[in-house]
Amino acid sequence: MFNKIKTIWDIARRLSGDDAYERYLKHLERHHSHNYPDLSVHEGCQIPLSKAEFYKQWQDEKWKGIKRCC
Amino acid sequence: MKKILQKCVWPFITLIGALAVGGIAINRGEPINALWLIIAALCIYSIGYRFYALWIASTVLVVDKTRATPAERLDNGRDFVPTNKWIVFGHHFAAIAGPGPLIGPTLAAQFGYLPGTLWILFGAVLGGCVQDMVTLFLSTRRDAKSLGQMARDELGPLGGTAALTATFAIMIILIAVLGLVVVNAMKHSPWATFTVSATIPIAMIIGVYMRYIRPGQVLEASIIGVTLLLLSVVGGRFIDGQETLRILFDQEGLTLAWYVMAYGFAAAILPVWLLLAPRDYLSTYMKIGTITLLAIAIILLQPNIKMPAITQFIDGTGPIFSGKLFPFVFITIACGAISGFHSLVASGTTPKLLSNEEDICMIGYGGMLLESFVAIMAMIAATVLDPGVFFAINSPAGIVGAEAVDAVAKISSWGFPVTVEQMHSLANEMGETTLFARTGGAPSLAVGMASIFGSAFGEGFLSIWYHFAIMFEAVFILTTLDAGTRVGRFMLQDILGNVWPKMGETSWIPSVIFTSFAVVAGWGYFLYIGVIDPNGGVNILWPLFGIANQMLAAIALSVATGILVKSDKLKYAWITGIPLFWLVTITSTAAWEKVSSDNIRLGFFSAANDLADKLANGLLPPAKAAVAPQLIFNLQLDAWITISFVSLLWIIVFDMLRVSLRHLQGKPVLPLTESAYCPSRLTDEWIRD
Prior knowledge:
A: mainly alpha, 0% strand, B: Amino acid/polyamine transporter I, 28 helices
């Protein structure tokens, strides 16, 4: 039961973007920590951004282009 | 035993589906239960998905689960992110489903429940879902390119320009008609006006909260926002009861139209985080929550449908919009059956999240099936009303008369009895002063939803349910309106940037102000005319929107058909070719009638000439004479817009045929731009399911 609630909660977080920052950190860890010791020079993926800074960029990017229909 | 059961399940679903469709199609006179519509829909969707969609995916498109998707190859942890298919489905559905599938079926209910329902079901399964799925596939194979880019790369510059022009045009018309729907829902309704206005500061509070107070705490902020929205519905009742506050929100349609334009302008220039993004969050929750609630309520309540299967208005004399069943039912219901706009989301946005090609079927085809189901529920909500009430709410004063007595007499004379007392007490229950001539579909849908919700979850709160439904519709109409204005602004800046590079800088303030103003002026003009038109602008604007949307669908299907032919899949080109042929037929016929008909309610030119004659001979009452010159100009403009839409459509169809023919003759054509095969290395099970 608890697991189910946890799953639903995770889905809700994922759908709404609540966990976007955590996923971003994971992405950095998985893809860039070994290959790019100096992260600050890698395109698009600078040094781990602060949560507020990441969220700003994430939201601005999200609203480029057509996101909503009739 | 299990095998026998498995073998039986599809024949069984087919049988039930056939019985349900046959039942609703043959049934005459006796009221039919809404559950039959739901059953028919679910059976047709299942069969369509199992036997058509999966076949297209495996045999025609040949999706390859070993091939890395753009999300995997270009993963940047932000917009290109391989994502669990259910999450992508959620994003995709939230993006494609807007107010369209709610409004179209409500208006088309004037023909009876049957024509619209059949078109929603078969149009979606054979047309709309196929378009969405194929576009999603093509864009996924092309690094998530947009429809316009694909048209340019695969067909040539002509195709690309046509797609861009069509997108811009549809945006302008769509926003105007949606603006009109909101204005008509708020006109002289202090409660609705307050609730809808309150959504703006609420969105801003949430925006500030998510940006500065608790950055990135999206869910937390959303819960606060949704609570505030619900409070604003109740707060509207309080405002409505206060004489001094009430008059502040009791406004004429035209005043409200100016407010909506000012709002659109502000939303286009304000930063997204302040208004657009938080509003979009709130509207998405409202949308998904309310649609789920409606489905539960319909299944619990099992209401009877009171509208006849087919009304006399199939002859083209309908009060809500004019024009015969063919082609106008197909134009009126675009979203829910086939909607060109979806091809813009299916290309560009969704492919950036797709983790595996195998999911294309479920997301592209399945997402549209769900939207089609929303349209079926809107049809049910419209047709469970007494037909007399339905027509009284939706018929413009210019057709049935501005006085209540005249309106009920006229509507009753059509064979749909309704009385002034009935309308009065209904308005009372809904907390409104009047429900006559509340055109645009939103109020009648809200009455339908309120009566369904009221019967299912508590009769005492009809007025709350009604305004909740109005708020729910308004909140995502306004989201489409401000998101659309913003996209229009970017497109215009992009176009102008070719001439004067400085204009192309999206953050250069003079350019931002100028282009936002131009886009708002574009749709604002049509909204203004729609509001001052005594016949209600819906009769003009909605068909124009339908034609534009179907035209965009035809462009997407042309691109798809062209690519199928170029990929040497001529024998399968019919899967997009047949819907394309059908769309070209209906849009061309509808456009021809809108331009050339002698019927002044249908033909733009004949209406303009008739009005000009009456004006010249002094036959118009002073109020109408004052606006007549504007109306005449607008009718002529609408005619030319319609002509240009259809010309654009034919240009791209011929361009596609030219490219296809050259390919078949072995002559050189633009090469396929599919990106090279790259094996998928995604092994994380959590991503897949």
